[in-house]
Automatic annotation (TrEMBL):
Function: Acyltransferase required for the direct transfer of medium- to long-chain fatty acyl moieties from a carrier protein (MbtL) on to the epsilon-amino group of lysine residue in the mycobactin core.
Molecular function as annotated in GO: N-acyltransferase activity
Name this polypeptide is given: Lysine N-acyltransferase MbtK
SUPFAM superfamilies reported in the protein's UniProt record: Acyl-CoA N-acyltransferases (Nat)
Domain Acyltransferase MbtK/IucB-like conserved: from-to ranges: 6-53
A Pfam family: Acetyltransf_8
Organism: Streptomyces griseicoloratus
Signal peptide: none
A GO BP entry: siderophore biosynthetic process
Annotated metabolic or biological route of this protein: Siderophore biosynthesis; mycobactin biosynthesis
Length: 176
């Protein structure tokens, strides 16, 4: 599967995002009760933040998933671990579907990681999913993430995990 990326437009894309982030499948996104205005506001804040970026992943030109990248030294993980130069934080969300495609989510995380490692400044990708999110732990492991430890964030207990370019390439065979 081939994906492209474009910056998220907080106003234009809010309605679509709202259906994604409030769906029961997106429980770990923690926006279940969000109103449309809440989604617009949250993504307007990201759009205005130099340390946090939201992108839509497109398949055949149509929105297929959400990806966020952030600087973990300044957002999400600031003060919770020792950030290194070249660390990039990442979140991704695949939307609910009535017609699941086998391997789609693994293709998405592989595309996200490839995209992040296309930047030569990216040395390591950092994630902090909820410890209860077993499905994403398995996906993370499949693309080379190695869990380091559990950490307490204000909103959840998270599994801090890292993936270097070399670990990603070894796990996936994708040269980044």
């Amino acid at each position: 599967m081939t994906f492209t990326f474009r910056p998220l437009d907080p106003l234009k894309d809010a309605e679509l995002l709202h259906t994604w982030v409030t769906h029961p499948k997106a429980a770990f996104w923690m926006m279940q009760d969000a109103k449309l205005e809440d989604v617009e506001r949250a993504y307007m804040e990201i759009a205005a933040d130099e340390h946090h970026h939201a992108l839509l992943g497109l398949k055949d030109g149509e929105p297929a998933f959400l990806m966020e990248k952030y600087d973990p030294a300044h957002r999400e993980l600031a003060g919770l671990y020792e950030a290194r130069p070249g660390d990039v934080g990442m979140h991704f969300l695949t939307p609910p579907t009535d017609r699941p495609v086998h391997g789609f989510t693994k293709s998405v995380i592989t595309a996200v990681m490839t995209y992040l490692f296309e930047d030569p400044a990216t040395a390591r990708v950092v994630v902090e999913p909820d410890v209860r999110n077993k499905a994403v732990h398995a996906l993370n492991e499949a693309v080379g993430f190695v869990p380091e430890r559990e950490i307490d964030k204000p909103e959840k207990r998270a599994l801090l995990s890292f993936c270097t370019r070399e670990q990603f390439m070894a796990a996936t065979g994708v040269s980044a």
